[in-house]
Amino acid sequence: MRIDTVELVLVELPLVRPFRTSHGTDLTREAILVHLEGPDSEGWGECVAGRAPLYSPEFNAAAWTVLSELFVPRLLATGGVAAEDVARLLSPFKGHAMAKAALEMAVLDAELTAAGRSLQEYLGGAGDRVAPGVAVGITDTVEELVAVVARYRAEGYGRVKLKIEPGFDLEPVMRVRAELGDDAMLQVDANTAYSRADAEHLARLDAFGLLLVEQPLGEEDLLGHAELARRLATPVCLDESILSAGGARVAISLGACSVVNVKAGRLGGYLEAKAVHDACRSLGVPVWCGGMLETGIGRAANLALATLPGFTLPGDISATNRYFHEDVTDPFVLEDGSIAVPRGPGLGVEVHRRAVERLSTRSWRTRR
Ligand code: NPG
Asked: In the annotation, is 263 catalytic?
């Protein structure tokens, strides 16, 4: 694929309601969109970094700098590039997985569009619908949480994930479990908020029949997770700790997790995400597709990824209206508890230029 122009656009999408995790509260979602054009095709990518380095060390101002000053010039210096070469081309640069993933996604979209192939087909997925779960942020009161969960259940979400943190865990989980009944799929996500000293407290979550507890300890603490996993009946899932397929193998072999959250941005792209899926599948470890409040661009790609056979647990791929009033693509809609997978060429979504411009707060364009 030859690339002639590259454009970065920072968009800011107001959230339908504030999203609170153990890292803080977001009122808007800010994302860098990458747009490539070549003689035969064009492609879009999305960087899932946030405004501040709270989830991981990456953040948008840094991603913007590394993309515009280093990654894009390196890409343009090649005569042409295939999506499968992007990671290698950028490998001299350490880290910045989310920025790399955005560029690789745009190249993939352009390349597959030119070839008339869908991302789903390319990745090896199958099926035209995905039954997702919904991630529910921390609320001021447990009553409010129970009401929010009830509303999402009524909309048709078959699995609920609750954000927890010290001081907001056992009681909310108990109340939501009582509201949902014993058979409902329920899981929790701590985003690294606990320490090894909390093992006994976390073991009390076993009473609630959870699908899994996600990333209770710090991202580097694989041994702590292994210790915790031995102590808990609830399966331990890792998110922030897993940065590559090799890392997933190490974590699994240490017993640090028995489930893996796959997020392409955290892993440096959809190709590494597929490699993590393949590694976990070969080890008999279930995976599910994480979410990072993506616009329709990233959401389309996540839906395709979530149709791979190892994704046996529902992912965080909610309908657009769960997060945004206005998106940069047509909205994704939940119908009868599932969302349609885009199956057109590339990502299979049309990006609305006018919406991108309306939501844009910064842009940059360069030519070969
Ligand atoms: O449905 O897209 C979604 C959000 C799911 O809770 C969710 N994501 O820690 O997994 C997470 C969290 C997140 C959101 C992390 C945004 C980083 C950025």
From this structure: yes
Helix (H) or strand (E) holding 11: strand 5-21
Beta-carbon count within 10 A of 15 CB: 17
Distance of CA 291 from the midpoint of ligand 1 (Å): 5
> CATH number, domain at 353?
3.30.390.10
* Number of independent structural domains in the chain: 2
- State both tokens at 344: 């057109």
For 345-364, give one letter per residue: b (16+ CB within 10 A) or e: bbbbbebbeebbeebeeeee
Verify whether residue 274 is a known catalytic residue.
no
What's the pLDDT tens digit per position in 292-308?
A: 999 999 999 999 999 99
Position in ligand 1 atom list of the atom nearest CA 322: 1
Q: Which residues line ligand 1 (CB under 6 A)?
A: 21, 50, 55, 135, 189, 191, 239, 290-293, 316, 318
Q: What is the per-residue pLDDT across 88-133, written as a single tens digit (0 to 9) for each? A: 999 999 999 999 999 999 999 999 999 999 999 999 999 999 999 9
* 218 lies in the same domain as 247: yes
pLDDT at position 281:
98
**295 CA to middle of ligand 1, Å?**
12
Ligand 1 center from residue 230 Cα (angstroms) = 26
Which residue among 130, 157, 292, 313 is best mutated to probe the pocket of ligand 1, counting the most ligand atoms within 8 A of its Cβ?
292
Q: What is the DSSP string of 267-330?
A: HTSHHHHHHHHHHHHHTT--EEE------HHHHHHHHHHTTSTTB-S--S---GGGTBSS-SSP
Please name which of 293, 230, 286, 298 lies closest in space to residue 261, comparing C-alpha atoms.
286
The answer to whether 114 touches 41, Cβ cutoff 8 Å, is yes
Q: Are residues 147 and 232 in the same domain?
A: yes
Which pLDDT tens digit goes with each residue over 332-364? 999 999 999 999 999 999 999 999 999 999 999
The residue segments making up the domain with residue 89 are 5-116+349-367
The values of phi and psi at residue 272, to 5°, are -70, -35
Query: How far is ligand 1, taken at its centre, from the CA of residue 80, in Å?
Result: 34
